[in-house]
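Recall the central idea of this unit: under ordinary conditions, the amino acid sequence of a chain determines the structure it adopts. In this exercise we apply that idea directly, starting from the sequence alone.
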Amino acid sequence: MLLTGLFAANTFGQASTEPAKRPAAHAAEVVSNPPEARVVHPMELQIALERAGFSPGLIDGKPGAKTVAALRQWSVTTGNIDPAATHGLTVEQLPGLDIPDGPTTRYIVRTDDLQSVTGPPLTDWNEKARLPRLGYFTLGDALAEKFHTKVDTLIALNPGVSIDNISAGTSIVVPNVSELPPFPRPAKLLVNLENKQIRLLDESGKTIGLINCSIAKDKEKRPSGSATVISSATNPNYTFDPAVWPDVHNVTRKLTINPGPRNPVGMAWVGLSLPGYGMHGTPRPADIGKTGSHGCFRLANWDAIRLAKAIRIGLTVEFE
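Accordingly, the structure predicted from this sequence is:
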């Protein structure tokens, strides 16, 4: 399915199975723009970059700073000319990228999607510790994360549909994000604290993957030098230690917070040799790079899972 137009306020979500119609053109113009030079939709570009291991941020059809950074880094890595813009690029300008068959597809909502919702976020840590699993806040929240996007994108793609109140068996339009290839195994991780990016490097120092992250809000808690990976886990639990949360006054002992996508460390944890530091998922993927953490490096859950599966114990992590 191809979306006509760009994702602007007046066109966003207007899905169509027909290709965008070209205006009438003179013969010379047709020759200069042959039909095979297909323009890549912005959402297709984002999906293609993510499949290549260069995170463009949320898949929303609105390429911003994260998408531009991913495109530039991918271009540097592959040796292709760095395109000046994310709009109007053709398949021929992006050799080597796996361009999907259209930016959107249909998805049938499943019973387990509905069962993954456990309700609104809790603020009391004692109450969080009593939950058997920290699931999604709403159905829209669950579906948005499944397709690496945000609820607003799903609403725009499905006008007239109440995303939080649909039943199993309902067909909706979603970003065309199929199962992602694994990250290539890096020889080293390089964390850029200024750009809030984690780069996966090969033996020669070439960037083979790029992930966006949030870093410590307090500059004094941002690490320097290097560390090593000492652990890796998917679907982890979380130990709440009141000693490192001085703003919490009603917890007097350590609490175990059960696993789930809205667990404080999300769906994956990569522990570092720096005590208390790690790279992990987050309950709020839309905030990646925008809000600060207590010290760890927050990633979108889908990036955290891919990273946890790609790294090895003992891997070097450098900070710059």
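Residues 65-78 form the longest helix (14 residues).
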